[in-house]
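A protein record pairs a chain with a discrete description of its three-dimensional fold. The shape at a given residue is found from the number at the same position. Here is what such a record looks like in full:
>
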Amino acid sequence: MLLTFPDRLRIPWIGGAKQISLDDFAPAVIVPFVIFTASINFYTAIILGLATPAFLGYTYYLLKRLKPKSKFFYMWTFWSATYMIVIFEYSVPMFELLPEEKYILVFNVILAIVFIVRTKQKASMNYVVQGLSSEDDLPDIAEAEEHTTLLLEDDNNPKTGCNEDDTNMCRVCRKYVQPRTYHCSVCQACIMKRSHHSMWLDCCIGHHNDRSYYLSLSFSFISLCLGSNLALTSVCHPVLMFHVYDIPILLPDDCSYVFEQYDLGLAFIISIYAFFVMIFVLVALVRQMYLISRGITFTEWRHGQSGNNRTIFHNWKVFVTRHV
């Protein structure tokens, strides 16, 4: 029965039913269960608030060993974002929000979604489909100035192929690749200028989608920060901090009564959830900004590289203006 159930798990789709795996389907059930159960009272919120990170950590450890290509965390991101938006729309008292606050929030949420989709769409462009026939076919960086952004952004970083030596040959694919190309064990492909594999977006971050990834982190952070604050100040007693262009900036003060009414507790839980996700996104954003400033990727940093001996301004200029 356990082996048959995943095989029979299908959803209606264009052209016929589409099979989905159990780990892909699980977040659609677990995420709403955690949110709606935690909203019951203070104790359920504390219990699930402590249990959920432990569950995600154990799931990551388990799937990394047994099923590294699982879309569990990608689907967790999708359903978390969906329930955040829906619950914010129907549980947060909208009359407490100013029109300007709503427009700014909607604008940032749309941009975050757009750049997340672009990050996913451009991920396949990072794949090295055809390897170089020999090491002599590697482009000459000094002579091919127009290809420097694709290969190396400086000649102080020559040892950056799939191998950790000078051969620029991928030991997994057994083919010569461009410098700063690394093999991803999850994607089963060599990725140009690979930074890391994002389990939350289910794709590799590399040369063609690192800017979209950075912008998606930036607008996601703004959206989560603003949405969390607006929800908390709507369901809790707010306190005025200061004004920005006649817009009052409030912070939550007293939230002791939020669980007396279920919809307020639901808005409170989703705002706390958004706050912790915001911290996670902020850590990823700061890490990405540091790597951009140093002119290296996360994979290169893990391999012991500290920078490319260029100025921070130069590295950011290359990152912003390069053609992909």
Q: What stands out?
A: The first strand starts at residue 10 and ends at 11. Residues 137-161 have pLDDT under 50 and may be disordered.
